[in-house]
Amino acid sequence: MIRRNHAGEEHLLESDPGEDAEGGTPELQFRKFRRILRRWSLKDGVKELLSLLRGRGKKVGLVTNVGKRAVQEALGRFGVRDFFDEVVTRNDTTFMKPRGEGIRRCLSALGVRREEGIFIGDSLSDLHAARDAGVRVAIVKGGESLPEEILKEPPDYLWDSLKEALKVLKADG
Questions:
Q1: Which backbone phi and psi does 60 adopt, to 5 degrees?
Q2: Handedness of CA 139, 3, 70, 52 (dihedral sign)
Q3: CA pair distance 163, 32, nearest whole angstrom
Q4: With bands split at pLDDT 50, 70 and 90, how would you rate the model's confidence at 24?
Q5: Residues pairing with 157 in the sheet
Q6: Helix (H, G, I), strand (E, B), or coil: what is residue 98?
Q7: Cα–Cα nearest to 141, from 156, 125, 162, 127
Q8: Helices 46-55, 162-172: crossing angle, 10 deg rounding
Q9: Model's pTM, two decimal places?
Q10: Under 8 Å CB-to-CB from 18, ≥6 apart: which residues?
Q11: Mean per-residue pLDDT of the chain
Q12: Are 13 and 19 in contact (CB under 8 A)?
């Protein structure tokens, strides 16, 4: 749910998650990640969405291909760490997204059945991981995948923004 300012930076994050990546020690990768983190910002509506879900007593998890140390740094910087009941990173799985292992692990830790869960993401990798895990999936446009790519394999929900997701969720009560 974090937006990077430039497409090149998005690609760099996916292939250079700041920990346990090829091309250097974990410490070197983490220092690269910290430089990139300074240019990140939260997508509009993230805190409002997380607040709404928490206010309704929903369990909230995060599944990411980024390493644990880097994720904790980012969540702290953006002030959203306490919104999550469970965080599953690349360090917690054998297979990262687009495989569904991380989502299944997160659901299990939360005590949520897959029929009850929904995965909100912004990429084809997220879409494929949710399908592999057997959960409903909502995709928010504006991530690393083009809308045309997403529409080839339509998700259960496709939102233009998190603000749109908030409107839908508020209307559902």
A1: -125, 130
A2: negative
A3: 31
A4: low
A5: 138
A6: coil
A7: 162
A8: 20
A9: 0.81
A10: 29, 30, 32, 33, 34, 36, 66, 67, 69, 70
A11: 83
A12: no
pLDDT mean over 42-52: 92
Token pair of 123, please?
Answer: 């990429």
Residues whose CB falls within 8 Å of the CB of residue 56, separated by 6 or more in sequence, listed in order = none
Instruction: Please tell me the distance from the alpha carbon of residue 25 to that of residue 18, in angstroms, as a whole number.
Output: 10
Alpha helical stretches, state H, the chain: 7-15, 26-37, 46-55, 68-78, 101-110, 124-133, 147-151, 162-172
Bond into 98 cis (ω within 30): yes
Q: What CA–CA distances, in Å, run from 122 to 37, 64, 102, 168?
A: 19, 12, 16, 17
- Beta-bridge partners for 120: 138
pLDDT in tens, 99-119: 999 999 999 999 999 999 999
**CA gap 1, 50 in Å, rounded:** 11
| Residue 15: predicted pLDDT | 33
Q: Which domains does the chain have, with CATH numbers?
A: 43-172 (3.40.50.1000)
Residues 6+ apart with CB under 8 A from 173: none
Query: Quick one: angle between helices 68-78 and 26-37, nearest 10?
Result: 20
